[in-house]
Write a structure and sequence with these properties.
This protein is an alpha/beta fold and about 250 residues long. Helix content is about 35%, strand content about 25%. The strands form 2 sheets. Strands 6-7-8-3-9-10 form a 6-stranded mixed β-sheet, sandwiched between helices. Bound molecules: adenosine-5'-triphosphate and magnesium ion.
Amino acid sequence: MTAAVVFHSVSKQYSARLGAPVLALDHVDFQIERGEFFGLLGPNGAGKTSLIQIMAGLSTPSSGHVEVLGERVDQNPSLTRRRLGVVPQELVFDPFFTVRETLEIQSGFFGLSNNGDWIDECLESLGLADKAQTNLRALSGGMKRRVLVAQALVHRPPVIVLDEPTAGVDIQLRESLWAFIGGLNKKGHTILLTTHYLEEAEALCGRVAFLKKGRLMAVKPTSELLAREGRLEAVFRRILSEDLEPEKA
Ligand SMILES: Nc1ncnc2c1ncn2[C@@H]1O[C@H](COP(=O)(O)OP(=O)(O)OP(=O)(O)O)[C@@H](O)[C@H]1O
Ligand SMILES: [Mg+2]
């Protein structure tokens, strides 16, 4: 069976236009199997969001390519985009619509006209049911993040990508978000999560990858790392402090 996502030696060099040129990704090569709950970890600036943007077809790699469920993103971006639901790190939204309208419009992008039941389920599961008729402008930051999650899930994508979905959200949403996402994972959806909350990754992710300065330093089952080093935080600190050679995936 084809993997959910394959990163084929992906590199990304940002030009000097906005400052010094940055090699954000350096031949990143690994794959995520179908049905995995996978954690992509690394410090600020490691390249996590850059990798997600390339995967989502929002940015072009300098070399290498990404496959989503066997299709190359650069060759078939509209198909691979349908297979992905990406919750972006940055809060971006159109402030003129209500929560429900936003989700209906997003459904329309994917040609889904009878999506009301699923929209209701998303709103309910993310604690947004009572905000359905509220304009996005009137929502708090954490509520807007919930809408971004719902927006990413509206077409029931087989691969769900969450780029720091719990940054700045309260404990209640974290719990309901993980219950909802965990349930989707049990139903077969593949999950890719980036987070700086390592305890979240410990609890949720079957495998984790560590990026450092654009290089893949490790890809391992979480249980193996925990058995060897106790906490992911210890692994993280070790990788940050050592000048390790990247490991082969
Ligand atoms: N559009 C851009 N133009 C120039 N450089 C960029 C751009 N986007 C990201 N970078 C640089 O690429 C590197 C990787 O950034 P990226 O956002 O991928 O990191 P990240 O791992 O997601 O970090 P964080 O944990 O802070 O979200 C950083 O050095 C960043 O400054
Ligand atoms: Mg990021």
